[in-house]
UniProtKB/TrEMBL annotation:
Protein's UniProt name: VOC family protein
One of the Pfam families matching this protein, by short name: Glyoxalase
Organism: Angustibacter luteus
Lineage: Bacteria, Bacillati, Actinomycetota, Actinomycetes, Kineosporiales
Top-level taxonomic group: Bacteria
InterPro entries registered for this protein in UniProt: Glyas_Bleomycin-R_OHBP_Dase, Glyas_Fos-R_dOase_dom, VOC_core
Domain called VOC: residue spans: 1-111
Chain segments annotated as transmembrane: none
Length: 132
């Protein structure tokens, strides 16, 4: 990534990440979500021998958020490009996709309701344990 510090600031402002560790001014930062399960996002500079971005995308990052419409509005106001506007799906999720100013595509996901996979054409393989 060409500008680690700018990307980190953007991810903090738009997605609500917190910065846990900074390694050098431009080399790498470790981010996490303040109130979520233990998770980590590492933002790092492009270095020799690492995969560099190309015209074709190799992946999307999916991020669960509390309010897709609000995050999309914030992201677009700060330079993201809306790829796919918020849409509600039959499986109980609201999703939208954006390209951030640093070349990454994010699929934002909000759970609206818990819908059994059999209700929309899926199959339950191993049921999830109920939430405490």
């Amino acid at each position: 990534m060409a500008d680690v510090r700018s990307a980190v600031a953007w991810y903090i402002e738009v997605f609500g990440f917190v910065e846990h560790v900074r390694i050098g001014d431009r080399h790498r930062s470790q981010l996490g979500l303040p109130d979520g399960p233990p998770a980590e996002l590492v933002v790092a500079e492009v270095r020799p021998g690492r995969r560099t971005p190309e015209n074709e995308r190799s992946h999307q990052v999916m991020l669960k958020v509390a309010d897709v419409a609000r995050v999309v509005e914030t992201a677009v106001a700060r330079g993201a490009r809306l790829v796919d506007p918020p849409h509600d799906w039959e499986y109980g999720e609201r999703q939208a996709a954006i390209d951030d100013p640093f070349g990454h595509q994010w699929v934002l996901n909000q759970t609206l309701t818990d819908v059994a996979p059999e209700q929309w054409g899926g199959n339950t393989v191993t049921p999830r344990a109920p939430s405490p």
